[in-house]
Amino acid sequence: MNPTASPVSLTRYLIEEQREGRIGPNLRLLIEVVARACKSISIQVGKGALGGVLGDAGSGGEASINVQGEAQKKLDVLSNEILLEANAWGGHLAALASEEMDHCVAIPDEYPRGKYLLLFDPLDGSSNIDVNISVGTIFSVLRCPEDVETVGDEHFLQPGTAQVAAGYCTYGPSTMLVLTIGNGTHAFTLDREIGSFVMTTRGMRIPEETREFAVNMSNQRFWEEPMQQYVGDLLAGKEGPRGKDFNMRWVASMVADVHRILTRGGIFSYPLDSKCAPKGGKLRLMYEANPMAFLVEQAGGAASTGRQRMLDVRPTGLHQRVPVFLGSKNEVEAAVRYHAEHDAQARAVA
Ligand code: AHM
Ligand code: MG
């Protein structure tokens, strides 16, 4: 058997990247550990009602509420614990931060401390769990600044351009890990029989043009003016200024929506609206927008807040929220143009 023709497992891919000098052994270990944790989460998610893992977390009829003010699902809590436990003892991390926890957690003193910081949304789209729709884990890896004695939230506040790796795992009809270490975006499918992630797409590419958009249309009346105009023109189709008909998809699981876009193109957006404006947006910069932006850019797409490249945003808080536009390059640029033109007109009038 010719070994070079055999399937490329995640392990083999990472070893080859290490040989090429693109990652070191600690980052390789970190990614392997996150992938292993995702396999455990996949097993729990897959059990569904049989595993007794559906429904809200909490006891005595009281729902448990996370730092975001949202009711936690049992699987949110379980996935968070799986990721925390898996990453505590390997010696590759200095600290972890999760969408489900108020502050970062330093690696316990009993274990060696590594030089990376890991951020994750343990189970994104968890409102979909109970109805058996795809959910996913999103993660982002940063370097811990040097000479830090005690790691705190402030050390995580680095722009998306500083990410050394990012990815997500989608728990759908198949479990897939999509990863970037800054050298393209690659997809691995879990072979459940051998328990290993196998590369199924090397170098995902998002088509620059699209006819598909993803947005929660029920928020339309709460959007800002440029977003109203942009989507209004998409809906006008062939007869409108865009001159083509658009299709719409909205899973309400960011991982599933972004996976579709990485696979066949499209634009995903969770814009600013008057409901989420006081918080800065709906989606979290550090756990959702930045890792997805890194993956999308590495696949030839674009990601923006509507007014700034996502990866250039200077974070001010661990749980900061931002408006999000990402996907096919030309379409993201079109959405950004609507914002720029609107803002320029507003400045001219003022
Ligand atoms: P979560 O992290 O609490 O699951 O929230 C994020 C999710 C995204 O996956 C998805 O794109 C969005 O929230 C859906 O929002 P909506 O329910 O407004 O459609
Ligand atoms: Mg989330």
UniProtKB/TrEMBL annotation:
SUPFAM superfamilies tied to this protein: Carbohydrate phosphatase
Cofactor entry: Mg(2+)
Keyword Cytoplasm assigned: yes
Pathway: Carbohydrate biosynthesis
Family: Belongs to the FBPase class 1 family.
Keyword field: Carbohydrate metabolism, Cytoplasm, Hydrolase, Magnesium, Metal-binding
Annotated residues for binding of Mg(2+) 2: D121, D124, E288
UniProt binding sites for Mg(2+) 1: E99, D121, L123
Cofactor stoichiometry and binding remark: Binds 2 magnesium ions per subunit.
Listed EC numbers: 3.1.3.11
Subcellular location as annotated: Cytoplasm
Chief place of localization: cytoplasm
Assembly: Homotetramer.
Residue span, Fructose-1-6-bisphosphatase class 1 C-terminal domain: 206-339
Annotated CDD domains: FBPase (cd00354)
Originating gene: fbp
Coiled coil: none
Protein name: Fructose-1,6-bisphosphatase class 1
Pfam families, sorted: FBPase (PF00316), FBPase_C (PF18913)
Highest taxon listed in the record's lineage: Bacteria
Protein residues bound to substrate: D124, G125, S126, S127, N216, K282
Matching NCBIfam families: PRK09293.1-3, PRK09293.1-4
Catalytic activity, reaction form: beta-D-fructose 1,6-bisphosphate + H2O = beta-D-fructose 6-phosphate + phosphate
Fructose-1-6-bisphosphatase class I N-terminal domain residues: 9-201
